[in-house]
Amino acid sequence: MYSLELSLRYSPFPIAIQKKEYSDVKRIYDEIKKNMNDNDSYLIELNCDKVQDKLIVVRAKEVIAVQIYEKSSVAGGAKRPGFSLDI
Hey, CA dihedral for 45, 53, 48, 6, is it positive or negative? Predict the structure, then answer.
């Protein structure tokens, strides 16, 4: 399961969705990255594979950071989700 996490301007809490396939989450990541650079205000609709009824719409120009990470039960939480300066 792969997670895509968005940090929004003026919001202390990130928004996250999960997808089963890396190609799905990478496609969404690339779309958001492209729309962040456009001057027009695009809406991005996201849905989650883990929680079927979860739908999110965000304005692309309000996204300040995007990250992809893999949620693995084997890792046991080795990768902490969120944006961090820890190396």
Answer: positive
**Which residues, in sequence order, are CB contacts of 17 under 8 Å at separation 6+?**
3, 4, 46, 47, 48, 49, 50, 54, 56
Per-residue tokens: 19: 């997808």
Model confidence pLDDT, tens digit, residues 28-70: 999 888 888 877 778 889 988 888 888 889 888 889 999 998 8
User: Which residues make Cβ contacts (< 8 Å) with residue 50, sequence separation at least 6?
Assistant: 1, 17, 18
- DSSP, collapsed to helix, strand or coil, labels residue 44 as strand
In the chain, domain spans: 2-70
| Token reading at 14 | 């990130």
- Whole-model pTM: value is 0.74
Contact yes or no for 4/28 (Cβ under 8 A): yes
